[in-house]
Amino acid sequence: MSRPFYEQIAIIGVGMMGTSLGMSIKKKGLCKKVIGIDRNFDNLKTARRLSAIDSYTDCLKDGIADAVLVIFATPILSMFEIAKRIVYAVRKDAIITDIGSTKAELVYRMTELFHEHGNYIGSHPITGTEKSGAINAIDGLYVGRRCIVTPVDTTDRFTIEAITRFWEAIGSEVSVMNPDTHDKVMATVSHLPHVVAYALISGIMEGEKSGHDLLRYAGGGLKDFTRIAGSDPLMWRDILMSNAKEVLGSMERFSKTLERLAALIRDKDMKGVYEFLDQVKDVRRRFTDT
């Protein structure tokens, strides 16, 4: 596929993810002008200083008026409300996408909203860090990472091909997946690990109520395991609430696994505990080798 080129791209939300994306767009030469849209002028000014955007505004309609590609990079639960404010202002030939971590509810609502205004398709680049804000943007954040594109039955082929070309030009490896399947998969491999990390730190805080300074004795293992618990609470609140059914299902399966291990320990089943740990170690090794 040939390299796509857009006269103007609008990024709604220039935090860490949005600013990092703007940096890649500019570095790859994929457009003539990138407009940053945000209510946080510190983020906007930082994104401009990092050459991630060419200009900025806090006015949604002004920012997207001439854009042929509009990218939502805000917390999940705010996207649809923002979309309702711009639906009649977006260009008819514009492609609209997002970089949200949950898809089903958002994709179906956005597809219906933009049915006669622009061309919407969901995207989820699987990348990021626990840090937020434009100041923490990373050059090359999306390069070599998988991006899941989530069309529905009514998404036209041109829109699928166009957004695929865009992400591939950024440097991502594109996969196409049904929105519902996406949310089932992400609930297990992405959302649950964050839940566990947050819950573990919360449990340690409860333990400290006994008067012991537990975190004082934490080693590298705990710090590595719980790094993602330092992620933006607003972003993760929205992810967990917008994918509640699948997240709760993954939490229930995890709870059953914990209980199975607990039962082996209670029964002093040394062989069972060893086999449990050895099996998991093997899976982990195969996962990191791929």
Q: Any chance you could write out the topology, listing elements then pairs?
A:
Layout: E1 6-12, H1 16-28, E2 31-37, H2 41-49, E3 55-57, H3 60-64, E4 69-72, H4 76-86, E5 95-98, H5 104-113, E6 119-120, E7 122-125, E8 146-150, H6 157-170, E9 173-176, H7 179-207, H8 220-225, H9 233-242, H10 244-266, H11 270-289
Parallel strand pairs: 1-2, 1-4, 2-3, 4-5, 5-6, 8-9
Antiparallel strand pairs: 7-8
Question: Would you kindly provide a written description of the structure presented here, covering whatever features stand out?
Answer:
By secondary structure, the chain is of the alpha/beta class. The strands form two sheets. It has a six-stranded parallel β-sheet. Strands 7-8-9 form a three-stranded mixed β-sheet, covered by helices on one side. It has helices spanning 16-28, 41-49, 60-64, 76-86, 104-113, 157-170, 179-207, 220-225, 233-242, 244-266, 270-289; strands at residues 6-12, 31-37, 55-57, 69-72, 95-98, 119-120, 122-125, 146-150, 173-176. Helix 6 (157-170) links the parallel strand 8 (146-150) and strand 9. The mean pLDDT is 94. Helix 4 (76-86) packs parallel to helix 5 and helix 7 packs across helix 10. It is built from eleven helices and nine strands.
